[in-house]
Every structure is written in C-alpha cells, then in structure tokens.
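tool_log.txt
---
The assistant was asked to compare two proteins side by side. It first ran the structure predictor on the initial sequence, then on the second. Raw inputs and outputs are pasted verbatim so the downstream comparison step can read them without reformatting.
(1)
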Amino acid sequence: MFLCAFSEPESIEQYVSYLHKTFSDHYDTSQENGQIKRYELNVTNNGFCRYKRYFNNGKTEYFAFKLAKFKDMDYYGTTLSGKLYIHTKGDDVIVQTYKDRGGDVDSMATQVIIPVKNMEAEDLNQIRDNLEKICVQQQSVKIQ
C-alpha cells in the first residue's frame, strides 16, 4: 500500500491505448449482416473516439465524440456477442452520413453503438473505468 502511494498515475495515453486495443480486438463484424465493406474505429491520444462505417452500397456513416463527454455505458447481449452503447452528457456525438438516399446529413446524437464480441464482465468494467479516468483527467486539465 505504501509503495502504491508513490507510483505514477497512469497517463491518458495508457487509457486511450487500452480502449483502442479493446475496441479493435472485440469489434464484431458478423453483426453487420454483410452490409459493411469495412470500418475504422480509433481512439486518439487527444481524447476522441472516431467510428466510421463504409457500406457496400457506397454510404458512409461517421461518428465522433470527445471522451471527456462520456456519461455512461450499457451493454446488451451475451458474453459471445452484443452491442456496447456509449452515452455522452448531451448531444455530443457528431454524426455525418455521406452518399445516403436522403443526401449527406450532419447531425448530433447522445450515443454511439459499437457491435462487440467475446465481452466478459471484467472487459466491460475496464472499458468503463478507462473512460471515467479519461473524463476526470481531461476535466482536471480544463480546470487548471
């Protein structure tokens, strides 16, 4: 316990790296029903989560939000397959749709939904913990 008091706290880069690796390792392409040609899911060192889906019909969906806006998360599914809902504090998720039947659309949302697989309770707890730590660190930097 005494030694832990003098250890360096983890950096935002470590939290971001963990989230990026976890989202990449657990992303479930099988839930996309063959409609998605490819996807990009990145968590950046400057505190953003960016998720882009390229559909077979040419449509593209892009979601982005600042990790400091994280509010809560839910998971619906089993340990084999499910959807991770990441909620923000308000309309903080940028949503852009390109080459859709209705044209290009820019809007805002309160959540991002990521299809995942092989998620244990511990994985979900670690994701939440890392998101919360990023929020705290980014808010404390903002205050200073």
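(2)
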Amino acid sequence: MRHRLSVMRACDRILSGVRPATMRERLTDLSGGADLDELPDYYGDGPVTVLEQRVANLLGTEAAVWFPTGTMAQQVALRYGATESDAVALHPLGHQLVHERDAYASLTGLRAVTSTTAPRNPTAADLAELDERVGTVVFELPLRDAGFTLPTWDELTEACEEAVNIGARVHFDGARIWESTPYLGRSLVEIAEQADSVYVSFYKTLGGFSGAALAGTADLARYARAWRHRHGGNIFQQWPAVLTALAGLDRELPRIPDYVRHARVVADALAALPGVRVQPEPPHTHQFRLFIPYPAGVLNAAVTELAEKESVWFCGVWQDTPVPGVAMTEMTIAAAALEWTAADVIDAGERLLRACRLLHRP
C-alpha cells in the first residue's frame, strides 16, 4: 500500500482519489486554517464543541456528538434503539456486517435481521414484510458495497415512514451523506429529518485526519456521551482531527456538487472504452465502481507502470471479482480530476488497456 501511495504522490495528474500528503504537509495545512493560539480541547470541550454544533446546524438536529471512529458511533446508535427489541434491520452489504467485524453483536449484543438481499437499501415493501419486530432500521447512504447506490427521494421517505409504522427507529449510516444531496435532490437538513439518528464521517470525502459524529436529539446526545466514555472514546485531546474536520467542512463540502457532476462525465467516458463497465450508470455520487476485463494483478501492474512512466495516476486498488478475468476498483472523483476532460479520460484509459494487453500476453 505504501508503495502505491508513493507512486501516486509522484504523479502530475490524478484521475481517481486524492494525492497523498506527508505529515509535514498535513500539519502545515492544519495551521493555515485554525487559530493555534487558542487552547486545545480537554475531554471534549473547546474545538470539539464547535465542530459538534457545526454538524448539528448542518443537519438541523438538536445536537451532535464527536466520536473518534464511525464504528464506535454506530454501535451507540444501535444500542440506543434496542429498548424495544434486540434486533436491528441490516443490509448484508452494509458497513456493520461487512466492515465492522460484527461489533454490533459482539459489543452490543444485538441480532441482525436482513432488511433485504437486493443490492440496494430496503424499500417500504421490504420493511412491511419483516416477520419480527426490530428496534432500528439502518439505511446506508449511499450503499457503498452495492456501488455507492442511493434510493430515490420518494423511495427513501416511504421506507422511513414504514420503519416508523413497524415501530422502529431509523438510523442513517451517513459516512458519505455529504455527497448524497445532489442525487436525492434535497438538503442535508431535509435528508436528516427522515432519521432518528445520523452518523457522519470526517475523513471520507471531507479529508479530515479521522473522526465521526452522531447527530440526533438532545436525549440521544446525552446517551451517546455516556456510552462514548464507556467505549473508551472520551479521549483527552483530539484537536488535530477536529480542526481538519472543520477545514473539510469549509473547503470540501461546497465542492462536492462539482465532484458529483464531473463523476458522470468521467463515467460516461470510461463506459465508452471496449469491455469497460461502470456501476451505477450514471453514478449517484462522486464515487462509483469500474469493471475492466483483466485480472486484478495485471491492472495493478498496468496502473503502476502508467504512473511511473507517464506520471499519470488512473485508479486503484483493483480486486478480482467472481467473474473470471474481470477486476473492479472504486473510483473517487475529487479536485484533481476536475481538470480531466472526457477526451483525457478516454486517452488515459486506452493507454491503460494497451499496457494490460502487453502484460497479459499468454
């Protein structure tokens, strides 16, 4: 991984992702956007409270609580909703089941009920068919492992209404909710109004060091602070991560609509290449999946070769799929990609495919 990041950092042009910064660059960036003569936080005051209020204002919630990790924030949210039932409606492709090592069960003692097996968030019909009561229904916006897909606004609101009808709370896994607004066609406040709790991430998309927030009612916030402490998340000082989160809200959040629009330009260009497929088409956010009919090892080698020879970073990391000879990567269209025209994308894609053909000779 470190070699890949070093190669990417040395490139003049980057299509997918953000140029890796050194620790010195991150510290310089931090000092440029904050008053470092102010006192730091001590167990969650100072700049932490500033960030919490900023998030609550953005989402239109009564309160928000800083967490060092999103996994911790989500365990607290699910525990809060377990008063009526120890079951939680989760998607098999959702973050809790795929990326959190079953923390909801191991740490919180909850049971998972499958909300739907379709590669999308649950619909109202899916929830109406659940055969047992659940305390919380989780929606991941967007559903990353289904290709960063989102429901329509009508589908989302109808599903949230049905969750209430079956006596459940609604929790949004909103690690990437910032980039969901263009497709849903609603503001962050309007989206957050549909849920009882919303988790947001500060390092995904916004470029912070780390950290997350859990937003909702004042009662949820009181509960969250107590359980954050019990989980070991009430850390003495976290101001570096907090300040980078505030900087991300200032600098990156306003640019996200541009990233989403340009992702569609990039995806259209990529889909014009022979054998190449994007998912979804068009992308719902500034991230989408790209499939190319070569093994992952060949594509990783070709991307590195293109970067080292031409100082152009295309995309990575590639993974083999269940379809033999076809690999997949996740594309992230950010600031560096805005200078790429459709013709630039096609040209770089053709060069990548030529490199793959040479590397994949029998």
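---
observation on (2): The chain has a mean pLDDT of 95. DSSP finds 15 helices and 13 strands in the chain.
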